[in-house]
Design brief:
It comes from Pararge aegeria (speckled wood butterfly). There is one protein chain. This protein has one domain: Molybdopterin biosynthesis MoaE subunit (Aldehyde Oxidoreductase, domain 3), CATH 3.90.1170.40. The protein is built from 3 helices and 8 strands. About 30% of the residues lie in helices and about 40% in strands.
Length: about 110
């Protein structure tokens, strides 16, 4: 199952990772993309994201479809992306992938 969401609120890593928990899976791999305080030697105080929701969700679903083609053992994928202002040290994206074994979930979350 795929859980895809664009939200203006602060992301919860626990909430996203809980979406992919399943008794058949022995692995959950999580990636958290965070706003850092510099880019190319310049100070960063925040990132701002905006999206055409239906197009962004379609692109996210396409990534999930690719993951399922490459790693058929993947059980669930959750991909939440924040919109609006994301200050330094806060998450812009949280991706969680579950599978019976860790190799599939680790490779899949890296692909996302």
């Amino acid at each position: 199952m795929d859980h895809l969401k664009l939200i203006p609120d602060k992301l919860s890593v626990e909430e996203v990772s809980d979406l992919v928990l399943d008794s058949r899976c022995g692995a959950v791999s999580v990636f958290v993309g965070i706003t850092r305080d510099s880019f190319d030697g310049k100070k960063v105080v925040r990132l701002e994201y905006e999206a055409y929701d239906s197009m962004a969700l379609k692109a996210m679903q396409s990534i999930c479809d690719d993951v399922r083609d490459k790693w058929p053992a993947v059980h669930s994928i959750a991909m939440y992306h924040r919109l609006g202002c994301v200050p330094v040290k806060e998450a812009s994206v949280v991706i969680a992938v579950s599978s019976p074994h860790r190799v599939d979930s680790l490779e899949a979350v890296s692909y996302c």
